[in-house]
Amino acid sequence: MTLPESFRPLFRNYIFDSLDPDRCAEMIICTVLSRGNWEQVEWLFDHFGTAKVREVFLRDYYGLQNLPEPTRNLWQLLFVENPPPPDPDPLARWRCRRKVPATLASLTV
After folding, report:
1. Helix axes 38-48, 50-62, angle to 10 degrees
2. Which residue, among 34, 80, 28, has the nearest Cα to 54 in the 3D structure?
């Protein structure tokens, strides 16, 4: 299975003809959710299904948060049942979101 030709502009940094939707599913889903148009998003849900798209989105939402904030805000309306309340600190959006594993944090040099 190959991606539709309309996806080519979304993947300029890749060799488009070598992208396999099954092997690169997570990258394709995140890219289309953040930069795709309506037809591309429809293809995404038709091809991967709602459960897979939701799984990939939630992994990013509760994990490293690589998706842009406006994209997360849009798709959380569909996929997140109880979103956390916004942080009242205006500088919170600039904090590091990546967590250091406890084993590495306790190491002293």
Report:
1. 110
2. 80
**Whole-prediction pTM:** 0.77
DSSP code of 63? T
The parent domain of residue 14 ranges over 5-105
CB–CB of 44/35 below 8 Å?
no
Nearest to 30 by CA among 2, 70, 3, 68: 68
Tokens of 46: 């038709």
- Return all residues near 31 (Cβ < 8 A) that are at least 6 apart: 10, 11
Q: What is the pLDDT of residues 38-83, one digit of tens each?
A: 999 999 999 999 999 999 999 998 888 889 989 999 999 999 988 8
Q: What is the distance between the terminal CA atoms of the chain, rounded to a whole angstrom? A: 50
Encoded amino acid at 97, one letter:
R
The answer to whether 25 and 56 are in contact (CB under 8 A) is: yes
Report which residue type is found at 2: T
* Domain count for the chain: 1
